Amino acid sequence: MDIAHHIISSDGMREPATYREAFVVLSENGIIPAPVLKNYEKIAMFRNLLVHYYEKGDDEILFGIFKNRLDDFEDFIGYIFKYLGD
After folding, report:
1. What are residue 75's phi and psi, to 5 degrees?
2. Model's pTM, two decimal places?
3. Average pLDDT of span 12-39
4. 4, pLDDT greater than 70
5. How far apart are CA 68 and CA 6, in angstroms?
6. What share of the chain is helix, strand, coil (3-state, %, to 5)?
7. Which long-range contacts (CB under 8 A, 24 or more apart) does 28-32 make?
8. Separation CA 25–CA 11 (nearest Å)
9. Which of 2, 6, 60, 65 shows its CA 20 to 30 Å from the CA of 84?
10. Burial bucket for residue 23 (CB in 10 Å: 0-12, 13-18, 19+)
């Protein structure tokens, strides 16, 4: 999420109000494809849950993300590299 904010700031994109909205801004600017935007919004929301309400965090959900959704993180890296021109 830090890289999202860095790109948004350095490239003069509109400032997001939340971590979730940072992914929306990247999508609006063609960096993240719209069809996968919801995946990244969910990641941002889960991040907020972990940071602010960690005692309510669900270990099974976290394990499921690491077990089944790592492709989302790898894809995000690919979108960023593509945007930056490899």
Report:
1. -65, -40
2. 0.76
3. 94
4. yes
5. 27
6. 75, 0, 25
7. 31/7, 31/79, 31/80, 31/83, 32/76, 32/79
8. 11
9. 65
10. buried
